[in-house]
Amino acid sequence: MEKKIITISREFGSGGRTIGREVANRLGVPFYDKELVDQIALESGFAPKFVEENGEHAPGKSILSYAFANQSIPGVMNGLSTADFLWSIQCSVILQLADKGPCVIVGRNADYILKDRADCLNVFIHADDDFRADRIVRLYGESEKSPMSRLQEKDKRRQVNYQHYTGRTWGHVKNYDLSLSSSKLGIENCVNIIVECCGL
Amino acid sequence: MEKKIITISREFGSGGRTIGREVANRLGVPFYDKELVDQIALESGFAPKFVEENGEHAPGKSILSYAFANQSIPGVMNGLSTADFLWSIQCSVILQLADKGPCVIVGRNADYILKDRADCLNVFIHADDDFRADRIVRLYGESEKSPMSRLQEKDKRRQVNYQHYTGRTWGHVKNYDLSLSSSKLGIENCVNIIVECCGL
Predict the structure, then answer these.
(1) Which neighbouring-strand residues pair with A9?
(2) ipTM given for this complex
(3) Which positions in chain A touch B174 (Cβ < 8 Å)?
(4) Deepest of A83, A91, B13, B120, by most Cβ within 10 A of its Cβ?
């Protein structure tokens, strides 16, 4: 496999995580999603739930740091805001994981964090709103908000976080080697295309 | 072939046209690029060179309409500016060509013009600046402008034209089913991926 690290950025509900997991299975390499959250939590001292909710979200939004920490913060945060501290740990963990060997990393701006590596295949998965709305209701259930509001809110937070920490536009083709519509091409076909591209 | 119409949008110098031609060859369907320009020229009364230079460019920029026309304009332009008149003819020609049957159409905002058809595969081809700069010098020769200026100028005009006539952002993943980096994946592999996706 020439492209050793596959980063998958995705719209909420597009199936990007499912696609990433299947690509990792097919290639026989580690899949970092929940594991990534746990590792960042361990290194930062924040609760996994806090890392999961804030790691890809707008800086300064609902971050009540210590209240959610599952242990005391190791040392000081070097004068950084909680969001910036979390970002610095996230960068460090992702760089370490990529150094370990081939893997699939979902989300967390990994495409940008690993931009200096030539062996990355950066993928973006998106889908029509109807496809995504239907999918999040099936996977995560109903909530008091409409599915469309949930999509918009989550994507907006990812957009703002990406823009803030990378200076790039989330979802612009130039940031990715391969961008696929899972609603148009189908989830299984997206997996096939990514796996083929890894061998290029 | 399930996706009958393939539209290819592309950054200048990315190889999008070459990829489109090869996809058309492989699928045995017509390839509309120069032919599209000729058809628009015929229907509008403008010279092919004028259509080629202005059909994807910013409205109102260096458009001296009649001075370049190769024949008199048939009838009036219905009060439209030259750019808007050219756009209306372009839309009409592209809709007619798509109705004729499977084909590959390069550029001219065809992804947007055909947005109501379910049988389109909309592709965007992009590449690193170095790859593109090298390619345009090899293909089109040197000029008094630097290759980087030529890339920026041409892409900017396509961006502005797309934004003006579609209200969308040129190069945003959501406008395309498939976006590929030809510098990362290679031109031949881009062809293979598109051909495979046409059968989905």
Answers:
(1) A124
(2) 0.84
(3) 126, 171
(4) B13
